[in-house]
Design goal:
223 residues; alpha+beta; Nucleoside Triphosphate Pyrophosphohydrolase; Arc Repressor Mutant, subunit A; two-stranded antiparallel sheet; 26% strand
C-alpha cells in the first residue's frame, strides 16, 4: 500500500512502529486502603525492581491473551477477566525504545490473592500509604496506577461494591467502610444508606453481632 501524500514509493512499512506491551493494575482493598499488586522483575532490564505485571505482545497474540499469560506466569493469577483501561503512549515511558502500553485493570478480593501473595516475588502496595514506592515504579506504571484508582473510585460512586470485594451477605456498615477505603475519605452515613439501599436486596437475616449490634444483611442487586 502506497501513501501518495508522502511521495512515490512510500509504504506504510517504511514508517517506524512501536512495540506493544500490556500492563495490568490488579487492585484490592487491604488494611483499609486501596492496594495494587506488584511483581519483582526477574528480567535483566530493571531487574529486581517492583512493577506492575507486564509483558510484550507476541506475534498474532491478542491483548486479552497477553494479559492472562502475564498474570499467570508473573503473578500466579488465573481465572480473571481484566478490562482495558487506557493506552499509555509517552515515548519516554520505556528507555528500551518506543513502547505503547495497553493498560488493563482488575478488581480482585483479597482472599483470591492469597496464593499469589505467598510468593516472595509478589506483594501489595498501598496507593496512599506507600506513595514513594508507587511514584518510583518503572515504565510509567505510576500513571497507570493513578488512572486505575481513578476508574475504581468512579465505579464505587455509582454502585454498591461493583468489584465484589465483600463476601455476601454484608451489613451496610461493612459496605460503607469498604466504600470509604476506596474513596479514601469518610462518607456521610445517612446519605450513603439512602443511595445504596435501593440497589441492594435484603436477605431477611441479621448479623450475629460480633462486630457491634446485630444489623440487617444485604446482597448486591435490586429485589
Amino acid at each position: 500500500m502506497k501513501d501518495s501524500q508522502n511521495g512515490p514509493g512510500t509504504s506504510l512499512l517504511d514508517y517506524p512502529r512501536p512495540s506493544v506491551a500490556v500492563d495490568t493494575a490488579v487492585l484490592t482493598v487491604a488494611g483499609g486502603s486501596v492496594c495494587v499488586l506488584l511483581v519483582r522483575r526477574a528480567e535483566d532490564h530493571q531487574h529486581g525492581r517492583w512493577a506492575l505485571p507486564g509483558t510484550f505482545l507476541r506475534e498474532r497474540e491478542t491483548l486479552a491473551d497477553a494479559v492472562l499469560r502475564c498474570l499467570r506466569e508473573k503473578a500466579g493469577i488465573s481465572g480473571r477477566v481484566p478490562r482495558q483501561l487506557q493506552v499509555f503512549d509517552d515515548p519516554a515511558r520505556d528507555d528500551r525504545g518506543w513502547v505503547l502500553s495497553v493498560a488493563h485493570v482488575d478488581v480482585v478480593p483479597l482472599a483470591a490473592l492469597e496464593e499469589a501473595l505467598a510468593s516472595d516475588g509478589v506483594r501489595l502496595a498501598s496507593v496512599t500509604g506507600e506513595p514513594e514506592l508507587i511514584a518510583g515504579l518503572p515504565y510509567g506504571h505510576a500513571d497507570i496506577v493513578a488512572k486505575a484508582v481513578e476508574w475504581l473510585r468512579a465505579a464505587y460512586t455509582e454502585a454498591p461494591d461493583p468489584g465484589e470485594l465483600l463476601t455476601e451477605p454484608f451489613t451496610l456498615k461493612e459496605l460503607r467502610e469498604l466504600h470509604e477505603a476506596v474513596a479514601g475519605s469518610t462518607l456521610m452515613r445517612d446519605t450513603f444508606r439512602r443511595f445504596m439501599e435501593p440497589q441492594l436486596t435484603g436477605t431477611g437475616q441479621m448479623s450475629d453481632g460480633t462486630r457491634g449490634r446485630p444489623s440487617r444483611l444485604w446482597v448486591r442487586g435490586r429485589e
